[in-house]
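Q: Sequence in, structure out?
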Amino acid sequence: MHAARHGETVYHLYNAVVRPEDGVHRSTLITWGRGVKAPRSAISLEILQRIERRYRLPAGYFAGKVGGTHRAPGDFELSEIAPAERRRLAWHLPDDFNRRPRREQAEIVDWVRNVVISGSTDYRRYQTAMMRQRYAVRFTCASGPRRKSSIATAEGESGIINAPKRLNDEMAEILRFKTSTFAAFGLQRNGVWGEETASQKVEHFGLWFGAFAAPPESEVQGFGVDPRLLTFAMMIFPQVWDWYLQWRERRRGFYTKWEIDLLSIAAAFCREETGWLRQTPRMAANLLEIEGLISEQDITETRADWGGACDRMYKHARRRIKEIDRVARIHRDPFEPILPVLEAPSPVGEYRKITEEILRRMPDERHHPRSTAEAVRAFLLLRIGLHTGLRQKNLRELLLCRRGDLPTAERRLEDMKRGELRWSTRDQGWEILIPSVAFKNANSSFFGAKPFRLILPDLGRLYETIEAWIDRHRARLIGSAADPGTFFVKTAKMTSTNAAYCQNTFYEAWRTAIQRYGIYNPWTGKGAIKGLLPHGPHNVRDVLATHILKQTGSYEQASYAIQDTAEMVAQHYGRFLPQDKAEIAARILNQVWEAA
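A: Exactly. Output:
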């Protein structure tokens, strides 16, 4: 159209704006003009800018016509960077990256690496360094869903060993004790582990034993215990725990709540009446001397008085918990990545900007159907998360019942411990129904054994997007893979034929959405919020609770938004409330002066 306006053909335009060294053929401009293809590479986007200057059009005119970017350009000059990292970086580089000075290119790449890809918090830097130091004992007795773990998948990596049979059998016995419907005859217990908790404990025990098995001369600087000597009976000795606590402090530089949680397990194992170790004195037969840690005399005294040894360890653990609690520091601050949101007057309004950014940069569905489907999925992830405040497990396991289909019976949902999104004919809206047993805090007073039920509001194009997702976008991502039946599905590919999300992939989907649409990039001008850092789905609960605290000052009302209790909100969100309470009081008092 613009070529015709200026009396030019595409051939004339090609000769005027394309240089021989660009490597772009005349047919490329012809396909752009016909709408068959859209420019994607860095050189193509540069040619678009030349056309804009030639026809005196506003900068970004053609980019706005094309719609959002469906994939990252593939011709940035990043030859010294590995292909996998190059693909991640390319999403966040400016279109004119190749024309910028080398010094500025290095500055841009460094910023993207530190802020967008890894997130520049102290904890993220520590975690990145520690992830390179593999140490763990891998148990083979665990069943159920696997958690995101730092334990490697293949034996042979530094510090990774398979648990010896005896240790593995002990772990299996603990799992039966803590997860079975009834405690074994003659045993008592306090509390039961669900699948997620059991999987978490297996990982934690694997890291605990891995510290003792790791060689002292390695980066991990473990104790160097022969794996065949490892046994859960070691946990009965105070000196064993003291070595582990000091080892943890040396690695991190200070104590954290993690050490308190571990000591709580030790105390629970040795507690009178309900402790697993306390009720299994036969475990003493598995103890063997470990030079510098457990002597023959220690073993003899423990076997002679197992109950007394458990009492000593219980008292030692309680004493250490108090001592560490006094000096423990917060290393992983869950609020740090979203502080710009939490400090805004309206945290939900601030976070909502990310969903608006997704809509603004939505790719053209005609040309890029799969990329559009992925953008729609990112939009719905954040929007439904903001409306419900659900934990990621409940979100990713949310089933789909299409409009007109028969909803799943509530009893069936209870058996599956899953919720469902269905159309409510009574309320004429999309409803989310989740039985209370599906929640982590199922026994909380918030539920009172009643299911969670919420009608999503028809605001901000939510219903329009839900229906488009169900009608066509969702099927595009599933492709030829089996339909998992969940509302959210991941993109099934040749290398990943399963369309169902797991804990890891769901977290990464949310994090990717934040990286592409949430973090403001000063080099490209894209992104919704300055100062935001990558984060996962759990942070949306912080946004909701803090928003209501800022508006009402009520812990109880804030707890309603995240399906929890006022006590839990007060414990975790009190740091945001003092100034907000003062502001709420000031608003009320200032009305007197405004009236005068």
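Residues 143-157 have pLDDT under 50 and may be disordered.
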